[in-house]
Write a structure and sequence with these properties.
The structure holds two protein chains of two kinds. Chain A is α+β, with helices and mostly antiparallel strands. Chain A has 14 helices and seven strands. Chain A folds into three domains: 102 residues, Beta-grasp domain (Ubiquitin-like (UB roll)); 126 residues, Alpha-helical ferredoxin (Fumarate Reductase Iron-sulfur Protein, Chain B, domain 2, Orthogonal Bundle); 78 residues, no CATH class. The chains are: A alpha+beta, B alpha/beta.
Chain lengths: 316, 292
């Protein structure tokens, strides 16, 4: 089939801003987007810079954005993504472009190194090998599938506004060790992961889940790390207070009490933060949008409460 | 045409203008709504994060109520749509899990049979009502208005549970409806991104930065207003826009309309009926255009 590739190009030595270049080419029915890019490089423009190696979705080097979505180019068929015969290829986002479709993975690896990507076994050595139950390893295997391609980081909405955020790949890697029963320093790891730039900064946007070519579902692992952190007693955090207040409000009334949630997330004794809420509160009041301080129970609230008690158990 | 209406917590709390405009617009379009007054909060992802089975049970309860009404569920919130779509996908695919969840519902005599259909107004209008039928009701085409769509994460991802893998056009419905109102949809980078609301209490700086980035992006592309099917996005983009302007050191002042408010203007409802005067960022730029 005949397609047009719109390729985002940049040669930082000569240009300040990127431009799109158009290439018309013939691709086979089962060709990947990568096959087409290699054809462009070999037959149409030898100066096109791109990274690839295994061509079998194992090495993780050909992550790029096709029509805005981050994917592995070797695992994406042209016919599945072409829109009106057009395929738009850009480098993955959130990382500095070195040339054309090649990005600097430096900041990516920096984050992975920051989460201590190795196992800390307990000091006492076992008689033979370290044993781990099958069930526990099943959880870990999912994260082990990560090929470090950077697709999840590409459209991360938090990284975009705060490059200090550890990001989905590194946090999924962190979970791989926290979930490993042979690891011995979870308390220390979780304390560190709960700080600024860590697990509580994720905004739940699902971009990384959608982007991952290996179904690692990084966001789900970040949420699992939050549960682990709470189980280890790291509860002095707005994220934990927010979750607790949310659950209490639904449990007691069947619905969310937004006013109470805003205050309780900060903590009743956190005066500076509560004062910080005032301007927004006053604006909402003036616009007639302030939720009523008298939160009514929904009909059937008693049943909702019974469901909470039954499913959550006495802890709630 | 009848739906079991799930208004959600925010349209009954921080965004009363959404509840009113949704009810009015459906009435003008002749869509019958039976409100599920006793339905509980979906958990907005927060309860799923704490305890997936708890959140799925609360949503199964809502689905069972809709089955009793005998009509599809209608939401006016991207977040409710996403959480319910994900819960429904799980409950429909796994009969054993559904039976377990139904065990928690038995005390109230409820059982979810697995047949619920959940649709946001955005999807229902395009897929059930029909764009041509909608256009036939437009009495005040919003010519000259440039509106930037802002979808909200939960109605976009994950695409499998949301049925977007089968119906990719769901990622373009807002543009279609904006055009059906006679206005011009504005394309810009931010339309599929996060408004920042979920981390507002955890990292206000990043959250407000997102508000500033997307509102300025929309404005920079010539939009007079933004339109969202998600009241949580509205709360952040409207409520924290003044703070974002301070952070970015630039004036922003771009009104954030709920989807039914935009539709209502085109359908001839007044600004007051749509409670467009209940916003933090003034909507006058939009209502003036609608009057002209």
């Amino acid at each position: 089939m005949q397609v047009t590739y719109l390729v985002k190009r940049l040669n930082p030595e000569r240009e300040r801003s990127p431009r799109f270049e158009q290439f018309s080419l013939e691709v086979g029915e089962y060709d990947s987007v990568l096959d087409g890019l290699i054809k462009v490089r070999e037959e149409l423009d030898g100066s096109l810079a791109l990274r690839c190696s295994c061509r079998a979705a194992i090495c993780g080097s050909c992550a790029m954005r096709v029509n805005g979505e981050p994917r592995l180019m070797c695992k994406t068929r042209v016919r599945d993504v072409a829109e009106d015969g057009q395929v738009k290829v850009e480098p993955i986002g959130n990382l500095p472009v070195l040339k054309d479709l090649v990005v600097d993975m430096g900041p990516f690896w920096e984050k992975v190194r920051a989460v201590k990507p190795w196992l800390e076994p307990p000091p006492e050595k076992p008689e033979r090998e370290y044993l781990a139950p099958n069930e526990a390893m099943r959880e870990v295997v999912g994260a082990l599938a990560c090929v470090m391609c950077g697709a999840c980081v590409s459209n991360c909405t938090v990284w975009e506004v705060d490059p200090n955020f550890l990001g989905p790949a590194a946090l999924a890697k962190a979970h791989r060790f926290v979930a490993d029963p042979r690891n011995s320093d979870n308390a220390e790891r979780l304390k560190q992961l709960g700080e600024y730039t860590g697990i509580w900064d994720c905004t739940h946007c699902f971009y990384c889940v959608q982007a991952c070519p290996k179904d690692v579902a990084p966001m789900e692992r970040i949420l699992a790390l939050r549960r682990e952190a709470i189980a280890h007693g790291y509860t002095n955090h707005n994220g934990v207070r927010h979750s607790d207040s949310f659950a209490q409000s639904v449990k007691q009334s069947g619905s969310l009490n937004e006013g109470r949630l805003a205050v309780e997330s900060q903590g009743y004794l956190n005066l500076p933060a509560l004062l910080g809420l005032l301007p927004v509160g006053l604006r909402a009041l003036r616009a007639g949008k302030m939720p009523s301080p008298f939160h009514h129970k929904r009909p059937g609230a008693a049943h909702v409460k019974r469901i909470f008690e039954k499913v959550e158990g006495p802890r709630s | 045409m009848k739906y079991a209406w799930y208004p959600g917590c925010v349209s009954q709390g921080g965004c009363p203008e959404l509840y009113t405009s949704m009810a009015k617009v459906c009435s003008v379009l002749g869509i019958e709504l039976e409100e599920l007054k006793g339905a509980a909060c979906t958990g907005a992802g927060v309860l799923t994060e704490r305890n997936p089975e708890l959140a799925d049970t609360l949503n199964a309860r809502t689905f069972a109520m809709a089955e009793q009404v005998g009509a599809p569920l209608l939401t006016n919130c991207s977040t409710c749509q996403g959480v319910m779509s994900q819960a429904n996908a799980k409950l429909q695919a796994d009969a054993k899990y559904r039976a377990r969840v139904n065990g928690h519902l038995a005390a109230e005599g409820l059982e979810y049979k697995g047949t619920a259909v959940v649709k946001h107004l955005l999807w229902a209008l395009v897929e059930d009502y029909g764009l041509d039928n909608f256009k036939a009701k437009v009495v005040r085409p919003l010519a000259g208005l440039k509106a930037a769509p802002f979808y909200g994460c939960y109605i976009l991802r994950p695409t499998k549970a949301l049925g977007i893998d089968e119906t990719p056009a769901r990622r373009r419905y807002l543009e279609l409806l904006i055009a059906a109102c006679g206005a011009e949809p504005v394309d810009y980078d931010g339309k599929f991104k996060c408004c920042g609301f979920p981390i507002l209490t955890m990292n206000e700086k990043n959250s407000v930065n997102m508000v500033g980035t997307h509102t300025l992006d929309a404005k920079g592309h010539g939009a007079h207003c933004m339109v969202t099917p998600c009241p949580l996005c509205h709360l952040n983009l409207d409520g924290y826009q003044i703070k974002a302007a301070g952070m970015k050191g630039q004036q922003i002042n771009i009104p954030i309309l709920h989807l039914p408010q935009l539709l209502g203007l085109a359908l001839g409802l007044s600004a007051k009926e749509l409670r467009l005067n209940h916003h933090i960022i003034s909507t006058q730029a939009v209502t003036a255009l609608a009057k002209a």
